[in-house]
Structure formats: C-alpha cells, structure tokens
Amino acid sequence: MRHVANDRSVTSVQHVLTKERLLGTERRWRRFGEPTPAGVSLTADGTPDYGIFGPGSEVWEVLLHPATIVFHNSIQSFMQTIYKPIEAGIRDRDPISLKGREGTLTFFDSFERLQRNAGMHAPMWLGDTETAEKMAKHLRTIHRRVAGDIIDVGEPELGGYAATDSREVMWAALTEMHPMLRVYEAFAFREGKLPHRLPSEARDRFMGESARYVRLHGVPEDEIPTTMAQLAVLYEKYDDLFRHSSTMKLIPETGEDFEKVMGKAMIKNFHITQIRAILPLMIQAIIFNLPMAGVLSGKARRALGLGRARAGLAVLSSKAVLPIVWLMQQPPIERQFMRLMWGPDGVMLIESARRLHRDAMAAQSS
Questions:
Q1: 250 by DSSP, 3-state: which?
Q2: pLDDT reading at 64 higher than 70
C-alpha cells in the first residue's frame, strides 16, 4: 500500500542533489536484508515457494508487463488519493507533508517518497512467502501512528481514520491492485495489438488472485472481493469515502491546503541540481494526470471533481498519449524507469519473476 509514514524523522534541508543520491542504493528500499525471489526457497513439502501469486498467475501477467512497471506507481498514487482516509493520512502524518509545514521539503523529498513506494511493494508481489509477510508486517508497524480524528473538515460526519483499521487496510490494498489492472488494459501493447480490455473471466481471475494480497494484510474474509462484480458492490458500499470534496486537502489545525504548503516549501528550497528530481517527479505525478484520470472509471473521474467536459477530455487524452506510452515501455526506457522507481532489489525481483512467468506460460501453451 502507499505507506504514509516511514522510519525516519523529519530532517534538515539537503539542497544539492547528486545523480547518485537520486538513484539511491538498496538501502532506500531494503528493510530485512536482500529479499528472496519467488521460486528460490522451498515450502515445507519441498516444492518451490512462489509467494502469494507466482508464475502463470493473472496478476503476474499484468504486473510484469513493461507498461505496468512504468506507470503503476503513478496510477496507484493517483487512485489512492481519491480514497479520503488515505489522503487524510498523507495530509496529517506523511513525512513530506510534515516537512512542508516545517518549510524543509525539497523536490527530491517528494520524488523519493514516490520512489520508495514502488520498490517496497515488489517484495510482497514477487518475493517468496516469508519475504512478502515480513514486508507486510513492516508496513503494518509503521502505519500504527497514522491516525486522526478528522477525515475531512467539510464533512465531520465521516469521522476519523486509522491506517491499521481493516477498512483502510482493505482499501489501501484494493487501490493498489485495481489500478494495476486499469493501467495494463489501457496502456499495455500486447499480442501485436493496441491496448485492450481483458476478457471478463481473466478480470475475475485477477481479482480472485488479488484477494490473496488483501488477505496478507489481515483483512476479514467476509469483506474481501474475489470478482469484479463484488468489487463494484464494495465501491458502492463505501461511496461516501470516494466522493469529491473541496475541503479534503485542508489541514484540520490550520485550514491551509497541505499541497500548497508543500509547493511553497519546495520552491523555497529549490537548487539547480533539484532539476534531476523534478523531471521524473513531473512524469510520475503531474504530466500524465489527465490521461491517468481517463484510464480510471467514470465514477473515479467524478470523485476527482472532473466535470463532464474535462472527464471527456481525460478519456481522449488517455488515447492520444498512446504513442508516448508505447515508447516508454520499450526496453531501454522501461529499464531506466525500473531502476529509478523500483530500485536494485526490485529490478532483481522483476527479472527473476519474468523468467519464471515466461517459462510457465510457455508450458501452458504447449
């Protein structure tokens, strides 16, 4: 899930950004030593431990496509801010928001926040069972302090939030998995064809497998959807937590817009070397925002506050950017994004999983 707190306290400003610091080392993403890839270790019965998904799964088919590797972090972050309790946690407790209020936030801080988010998911999706469970436990631990009494100052009746409550944990996981499917269907060039929607049975298979990931985080079984129809019912049930609100970004204590506060701090702390972080930050969090809205559902676009005209423009833009999207998923460019956003361990896990998945799919087809 998009974690809204980390292990480090707010620190002083580091204005100068080197290329080495931008890329980071394994330490930026690693929490329990080197992760073990799926298929390397053995289960109690001596068979390979493929983790929670494994080769031949619909989730790996979607996740391991270059389009998903490049764009998943963007659409996940975009979708998760639509769910109000997650946005509230970022507003109130996330280190980049706190740095913004202190006036110490830099463009690199915001970029690194996105960067760690991608790479810290790879061990759960592509590691063996022990690796996945350790990372899930770590995320639960750091989320314990992410809680507040007010989700939205404009709608006090919504109450408060707590990132470790089953409702928030469930939606954090679902708003990682469902956008993954949406961006794959919208942007993945495959089978010699333009991007296209999966058959309904494959979409249900993806959701059924995704339930394993939701379950990993301790969500009660009776709430976990296993089909797309069940997911749609769940969206309806929690509709009040996805509706657009003009007051959602206001800090309860001060009434300030937390994104504007962060923006002022980043501009104040600008250094010419920060340009190294600004371009990838723009690609991941700003430039593709309109096409990303077009990739999401009509209901999600309404939750973003888009009117009919702008929503239509978003859908058109998601088609218009396809030539650029195709270019970005070609091997040389994809590899740059993979290393930058998923980290060295993530690259290793992705490459290992792709080999396993390729072999499994070849065996199925033969």
A1: strand
A2: yes
Sign for the CA dihedral angle at 304, 81, 239, 180 comes to positive
Task: Tell me what pLDDT residue 2 has.
Answer: 52
Q: How far is Cα 316 from Cα 294, in angstroms, rounded to an integer?
A: 7
Q: Are 115 and 339 in contact (CB under 8 A)?
A: no
Beta bridge partners of 190: 193
The pLDDT tens digits for 217-253 are: 999 999 999 999 999 999 999 999 999 999 999 999 9
Q: Give 351's contacts (C-beta < 8 A, 6+ positions apart).
A: none
CA dihedral 310→315→320→325, nearest 10 degrees, is 120
Give the start-to-end residue ranges of the domains of the chain: 51-355
Q: Is the pLDDT of residue 358 over 50?
A: yes
Nearest Cα to 22, choosing from 274, 270, 269, 266?
Answer: 274
- Tens of pLDDT along 12-41? 688 999 999 999 999 999 988 999 999 999
If we measure between CA atoms, which residue out of 140, 144, 162 comes closest to residue 218? 140
SS3 242: coil
pLDDT score, position 213: 98
The tokens for 1 are: 């899930």
Which residues make beta-bridge pairs with 37?
127
Q: Which two tokens stand for residue 177?
A: 């998995």
Identify the pLDDT of residue 119.
85
Report the alpha-carbon distance of residue 147 to residue 333 in Å, rounded: 39
Q: What is the pLDDT of residue 365?
A: 87
> Nearest-CA neighbor of 291 among 324, 337, 242?
324
Q: Using CB atoms within 10 A of its CB, is residue 238 exposed (0-12), middle (13-18) or buried (19+)? A: middle
% of the chain surpassing 70 pLDDT: 97
Query: Which residues make beta-bridge pairs with 162?
Result: 147
